[in-house]
């Protein structure tokens, strides 16, 4: 029979990890966000000064709005593409398993390598993209994608938007649980494949869509490698995001208090978006 | 109760297999598939081809096949920077963090097979980190690793990886362990096996598939991590390959094909694992999607 000390012993390593890497950092950043701290020496209490500074700081405003742009692009461009490909592969065309495996491939490759690779794809002379445009007679649209303020943000997002594998697998899994009788009935009524998708499949994968949007939010809040490697936030902070801002305030500016205040804002943004998703899902389901 | 989703297998439970795809299946669908295949594969193929060219050939002819297939960039990449050491550090960090996270997750999952007063609360406590964007924690974690004297060591990095990946690995293993038939535990108790014995000789062996899924997720995530690796390390004592590949571009005489060769080396372990174990890898990487 299990005794209390035995159970406590088995729970100990897990508890220590969670206390160390989630509870302590969470309390620490909330506490320190009210302090000015250079990393060494004593911290001074500054009240809400850090947050007031963030509210005025142009680069923080850009970091926040760019992160929200990632969420919006992820929700309204990336996710529909994931659904589209999932609907097609759900019909199990010739070699669909191979396609599924290939589409998922970018998810096992490090974001660092993907960012480096795309940096070269966007390269002004070398890049596949400009050369491709020239070959297609669209050379006048070629540009220094990552250095042009009008295209830089979109360019840093693009690889993520078109690598649809992860979301596609989530939707494919969900679609495979839909009973086939539902489709047979619709087929008898003469519904086309796209009508079946629209009226049967989509309403039944609502929860998977909510889940996918949740992943999009998590991804956007954590995204660091693409802007860090492709542009380092430039040109003129056009591609900076919350992760990069937190990193910069800490590593480059040594403003630990500010960095952690930005971390607190990141957590709040996450909590607000999470509640919004749950709210929308509840409303759609009722 | 939460359930880790099963990735769909070959059995078509939902839609009927389409017998004549080219007939029933619109040209539009094939256009979509082809487009995404090209978007996914062409960049990686270009990376590999470019890593086999000379710098001059890359600039004069970026899209051709290499005029002579040579691994010269790979040999020179290993000579130019301590790539072997970076790869070794990545491997050590990935394997030791995986081992630590798996140990903690297995022990905790087993303890929570027993229901007691706070078991639900402890379960929620152990997974609440799933919702937190850990990049907000770089300052406290940096401070902590310094405090522990683990700055610029592979072990510090491994400890951080096991911590931040713990909630998901725990969820995967717990969900699997919950499906272990209760009768097995009862049988163990009737044989008067101790608490520890039941864990080691009954629960652990039958949980191996869940543990493997979690391990795949843990190893790949740790191997690919950049943010903490660049904050917690300083030199080749502990820098991982994800940090190291960037040096191939920051040196003043950037040799692009050599940088491509280094990039290929950084991604080849996970890609190879994926080629051989694709279904398990997909399952491990998407195990976080809970119904």
The helix-and-strand class of chain B reads mainly alpha
Please give the number of β-strands of chain B.
0
**Strand proportion of chain A:** under 5%
How much beta of chain B, percentage-wise? under 5%
Low-pLDDT segments of chain A: none
CATH architecture of the largest domain in chain B: Orthogonal Bundle
Kindly give the count of domains of chain B.
Answer: 2
Residue share in helix of chain A? over 70%
CATH fold annotation of chain A? MetI-like fold
The CATH C-level name of chain A is Mainly Alpha
User: End-to-end distance of chain A, in Å?
Assistant: 46 Å
What do the pLDDT scores of chain B average to?
87
User: Low-confidence stretches of chain B at least 5 residues in length (pLDDT < 50)?
Assistant: 1-23
Q: How many β strands of chain A by DSSP?
A: 2
Describe this structure in words.
The complex is a heterodimer of chains A (286) and B (291). Chain A has 286 residues and is an all-alpha fold. In chain A, 71% of the residues lie in helices and 1% in strands. Chain A has a single domain, classed as MetI-like (MetI-like fold). Chain A is built from 14 helices and two strands; from the N terminus they run αββααααααααααααα. Chain A is globular and about 75 Å long. The model of chain A has no long low-confidence stretch (mean pLDDT 92). Chain B has two domains: 51 residues, no CATH class; 211 residues, MetI-like (MetI-like fold, Orthogonal Bundle), CATH 1.10.3720.10. The N terminus of chain B is likely disordered. Classes of the chains: A mainly alpha (286), B mainly alpha (291).
């Amino acid at each position: 029979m299990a005794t209390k000390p035995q159970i406590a012993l088995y729970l100990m390593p897990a508890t220590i990890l969670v206390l160390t890497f989630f509870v302590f950092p969470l309390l620490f950043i909330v506490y320190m966000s009210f302090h000015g701290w250079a990393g060494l020496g004593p911290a001074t209490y500054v009240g809400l000064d850090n947050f007031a500074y963030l509210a005025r700081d142009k680069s923080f405003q850009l970091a926040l709005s760019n992160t929200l742009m990632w969420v919006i692009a992820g929700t309204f461009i990336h996710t529909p593409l994931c659904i589209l490909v999932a609907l097609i592969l759900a019909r199990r065309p010739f070699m669909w398993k191979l396609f599924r495996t290939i589409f998922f491939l970018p998810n096992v490759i490090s974001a660092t390598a993907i960012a480096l690779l795309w940096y070269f794809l966007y390269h002004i002379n070398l890049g596949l993209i400009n050369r491709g445009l020239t070959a297609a007679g669209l050379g006048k649209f070629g540009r220094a994608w990552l250095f042009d303020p009008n295209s830089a943000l979109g360019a840093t997002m693009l690889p993520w938007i078109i690598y649809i594998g992860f979301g596609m697998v989530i939707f494919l899994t969900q679609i495979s649980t839909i009973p086939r009788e539902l489709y047979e009935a619709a087929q008898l009524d003469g519904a086309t494949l796209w009508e079946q998708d629209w009226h049967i499949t989509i309403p039944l994968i609502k929860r998977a869509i909510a889940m996918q949007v949740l992943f999009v939010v998590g991804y956007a809040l954590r995204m660091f490698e693409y802007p860090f490697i492709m542009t380092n936030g430039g040109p003129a902070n056009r591609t900076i995001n919350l992760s990069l801002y937190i990193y910069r305030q800490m590593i480059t500016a040594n403003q630990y208090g500010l960095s952690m205040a930005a971390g607190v804002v990141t957590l709040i943004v996450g909590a607000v978006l999470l509640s919004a998703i749950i709210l929308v899902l509840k409303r759609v389901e009722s | 109760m939460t359930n880790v989703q099963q990735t769909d297998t070959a059995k078509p439970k939902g839609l009927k297999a389409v017998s004549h795809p080219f007939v029933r299946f619109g040209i539009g669908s094939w256009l979509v598939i082809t487009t995404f295949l090209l978007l996914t594969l062409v960049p990686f193929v270009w990376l590999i081809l470019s890593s086999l060219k000379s710098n001059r050939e890359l600039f004069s002819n970026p899209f051709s096949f290499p005029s002579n297939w040579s691994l010269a960039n790979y040999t020179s990449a290993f000579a130019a920077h301590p790539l072997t050491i970076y790869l070794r550090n990545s491997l050590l960090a990935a394997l030791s963090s995986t081992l630590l996270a798996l140990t903690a997750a297995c022990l905790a999952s087993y303890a929570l097979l027993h229901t007691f007063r706070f078991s639900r609360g402890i379960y929620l406590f152990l997974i609440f980190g799933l919702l937190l964007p850990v990049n907000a924690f770089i300052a406290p974690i940096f401070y902590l690793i310094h405090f522990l004297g683990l700055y610029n060591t592979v072990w510090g990095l491994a400890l951080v990886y096991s911590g931040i990946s713990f909630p998901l690995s725990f969820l995967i293993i717990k969900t699997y362990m919950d499906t272990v038939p209760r009768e097995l535990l009862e049988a163990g108790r009737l044989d008067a096996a101790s608490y520890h014995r039941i864990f080691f000789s009954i629960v652990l062996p039958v949980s191996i598939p869940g543990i493997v899924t979690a391990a795949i997720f843990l190893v790949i995530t740790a191997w690919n991590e950049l943010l903490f690796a660049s904050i917690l390390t300083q030199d080749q004592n502990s820098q991982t390959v994800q940090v190291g590949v960037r040096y191939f571009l920051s040196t003043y005489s950037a040799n692009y094909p050599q940088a491509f060769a280094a990039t290929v080396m950084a991604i080849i372990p996970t890609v190879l694992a994926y080629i051989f174990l694709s279904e398990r890898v997909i399952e491990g990487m998407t195990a976080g999607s809970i119904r």
